[in-house]
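REQUEST ID: PR-0412
SUBMITTED BY: lab tech R.K.
PRIORITY: routine
TASK: structure prediction, single protein chain
INPUT:
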Amino acid sequence: MDSDFEELIAEANSVSVDGWDFSWLDGRASEQRPSWGYQKQQARRLATARAALDIQTGGGEVLAEAEVFPPTMVATESWPPNLGKATRLLHPRGVVVVADPDEPPLPFADAAFDLVTSRHPATVWWSEIARVLEPGGVYFAQHVGPASVFELVEYFLGPQPEARLARDPELEAEAARAAGLEIVQSRSERLRMEFNDIGAVVYFLRKVIWMVPGFTVEDYRDRLHDLHRQIRGDGPFVAYSARTLIEARKPV
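STATUS: complete
OUTPUT:
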């Protein structure tokens, strides 16, 4: 193994991956952004809501970009490092951060919120979202779409034909309707990503843990080294993320 490879993976393997701040990748990886601008739209909706819930808030970085919160603002998160980060970031602004295992039921009363938001939830429990929304309330979210970054996933795991079918926006819309929600809009885009060095790949897979479950540098050292040589010889590793913007309303 060459020294450049060892230095890159050692650095990426030691840096903190808490929260959803990806600034460590600046200059090392890039990703196109969806055309709809989720965070700005979320902020506008929060500014006019009365009671809002942000599900699976991560470290609270996206939610914290909003300038105005409703009188009641709650966020849930399951991963302890993210809980601590979200609490430190959001509590000074009056947001209550609640530890929640991302499994039903949500720890809130029926019809508690007029707005529920989420950016890249790992799981979506439509019946619970419908339950905690008041009549006329809205779920507004950006989901990860089908086969997102699967060029990288399948590089390490091989073909994943069944997994490629998950997160289909049509099936998500059907599940939302089955829970009693009306689909207001559903939009999907695929967006180019580039990984400029092997350290960016290691950091990404450590942070987005469901891409290659159980990923460790030691388990995948040989494949990482092959990819390092590929990037050095051919240029950035290219993959495509999938994003879905979804808005659903609970009927009055």
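NOTES: The mean pLDDT is 96.
REVIEWED BY: pending
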